[in-house]
Amino acid sequence: MKLLQLLFAGFIVITFSGSLAFKFLAGGTAVPESSQQQQDRINKLFEEAHRVDIIANTPPGELFDKYLTRDLNSCFSERLGRKVRTTYELLQKDAIQIGLGFPYYYIWVRIFDEKSGELLDEGVTSAKAMLQRDFGIGSKVWHAEQILKNPSFPDFFPDSLCLAILGRATVVQATNNVSKALHMKN
Questions:
Q1: Sheet containing 84-90: which strands, arranged edge to edge?
Q2: pLDDT digits 0-9 by tens, 84-131
Q3: Rounded to whole angstroms, what are the CA distances from 15 to 1, 25, 98?
Q4: Residue 75's Cα: distance from chain center in Å?
Q5: Longest dimension (CA), the chain
Q6: What is the pLDDT of residue 173?
Q7: Alpha-carbon distance 2 to 100, whole Å?
Q8: Comparing C-alpha atoms, which of 5, 164, 119 is closest to residue 13?
């Protein structure tokens, strides 16, 4: 699948970038700077390739929630060694697509014990959509405390999500602090 995606992207770039690409490939000569119009055309082609890749991998409609919930429950039940129930919130509406590959969604996940309903864990992780059937869940859950104490946390997330993640972590940490204070009073 990846090889086909790479070949398709290469074909599109060569086809639509005009004679400059052929001159470069044929003679090994330096390609002069392309016009803004050519650059815009190439950027649109890459955006279209990303859009096609997202559609090809993201489950449509109601299946998105069904499959993501299934895969979160399965993943965290296995990791924690007991049956769990999860809830999640997407931190962005659209997938983040870098290069050619699976599209990623970043989510705030809450993990509950299936029997008692006790909150076991909470934080941000990633989920990559694969072939409209599965989600690969990130290997790490970043907790509110880790996010707020680690100045390099933005290095691990797309820039466009850092403020949303910090905001969510701040709210969760404040809620935890209030809860602890109330328990200490009683």
A1: 84-90, 104-113, 119-130, 134-137
A2: 999 999 988 888 877 677 899 999 999 999 999 999 989 999 899 999
A3: 21, 12, 22
A4: 17
A5: 80
A6: 81
A7: 7
A8: 5
How far apart CA 157 and CA 119 sit, in angstroms, is 25
Q: What is the DSSP string of 141-158?
A: -B-HHHHHH-TTGGGGS-
Tokens of 5: 């995606």
Higher pLDDT, 17 or 50: 50
Which amino acid appears at position 10 of this protein?
Answer: G
Q: Which two tokens stand for residue 147?
A: 């996010």
- Using an 8 Å Cβ cutoff, are 158 and 96 in contact? yes
pLDDT at residue 134, as a whole number: 94
Tokens representing 70? 């299934």
**What are the phi and psi torsion angles at 158 (to 5°)?**
-60, 140
- Total residues belonging to the chain: 186
Residues 158-175: tens digit of each pLDDT = 888 888 888 888 888 888
pTM (predicted TM-score): 0.69
One-letter amino acid for residue 49 of the chain: A
Residue 13: how many other CB atoms lie within 10 Å: 15
For residue 67, what are its two tokens? Answer: 């499959």
Tokens of 7: 């070949």
- Locate 113 and state its tokens: 């014990």
Query: Is 18's pLDDT higher than 70?
Result: no
